[in-house]
Amino acid sequence: MTTTGVTKYAVPVSLLFASLTLVSGHANTDDLAGVSYTCDVAISETDAFLDEVLIIAHDLERNQIAVSEPVIEYFDARGYVDGWVATTEGAFVEYAWEFMARDGDGTEALMQYSAELSNDDLTVIVRASPQGYDEVYRAMGNCTAEAVDF
């Protein structure tokens, strides 16, 4: 997989931390100021609330996380949402985020997301679920990690 889809983003990773407040650390990054994950996600036509590219930027010094991807950019004018670490389990870290979205009929739902990221090979499993509905969208992909100084 490639990272050519990153050009879709209106918000550069360095600007994602303009006004964040959030949560926890990430395994194996003790001596980094921050890390940015760019993930290529293999989606199907039925994955309505997932996209091919996902960026998770984690400022380790300030415990702040920002998540951006085209679905977020569509529903949130900032182009990113705040995230948090839901679980840290040695071999993986699970990031989570949520935002309000509307379906084609204009019905609002709180979209709840998670990205389970392997510390070993940087594979990712992304899940999206609209609160109050039975649907759970799921896709897998690969990420690259870049040390960043926020």
The neighbouring-strand order within the major sheet is: 1-2-3-4-5-6-7-8
Strand content: over 45%
SS class: mainly beta
Calculate the mean pLDDT score and round it: 80
Give the termini distance in whole angstroms: 27 Å
Main sheet makeup: 8 strands, antiparallel, barrel
- Taking pLDDT < 50 over at least 5 consecutive residues as the criterion, the unreliable ranges are 1-29
**Quaternary form:** single chain
Query: What's the alpha carbon Rg, rounded to whole Å?
Result: 14 Å
Number of helices: 1
Total strand count, please? 8
Order of helices and strands: EEEHEEEEE
* C-alpha geometry: globular
State the helicity in percent bands: under 10%
Word description of this protein:
With about 150 residues, this protein is mainly β. About 5% of the residues lie in helices and about 50% in strands. It contains one helix and eight strands. The protein has one helix at about 70-75; strands at about 35-40, 55-60, 65-70, 80-90, 90-100, 110-120, 125-130, 135-150. It has an eight-stranded antiparallel barrel with strand order 1-2-3-4-5-6-7-8. The longest helix has 6 residues, at about 70-75. The model is unreliable at about 1-30 (pLDDT under 50).
Keywords:
mainly beta; 4% helix; eight-stranded antiparallel beta barrel; single chain
Protein topology:
Elements (H helix, E strand, L loop, with lengths): L33 E9 L10 E7 L4 E5 L1 H6 L5 E9 L2 E11 L5 E11 L4 E8 L6 E12 L2
Antiparallel strand pairs: 1-2, 1-8, 2-3, 3-4, 4-5, 5-6, 6-7, 7-8
